[in-house]
Design a protein that fits this description.
Blueprint: H1 12-34, H2 40-88
Amino acid sequence: MTKSGTTSPTTTAFYIQAALSFALALAAVVGAIVYLPVDGWIRGFLALGMLYLVTSTFTLAKCVRDRQEETSVLSRVDQARLDKLLAEHDPFKTPAV
């Protein structure tokens, strides 16, 4: 039988790296919009587009995570059912007549 653990494969270092990478990218885009040599309306439009992109990214990441967790839970339930059936199965049991 295989053990399916509930531990997350994401390490703390990976989480910190992802957060820092996101913060750096966001700061770079905000800096680019602020120092762009255009009118305020264009900057506002770009900032609004960037805000929409960031919130959409978070929503998409949540949906992907939820689908992955749902698949993981369903596979664990199926594995538990299979383990129960195998534990209850007696190949030497004869049918009662």
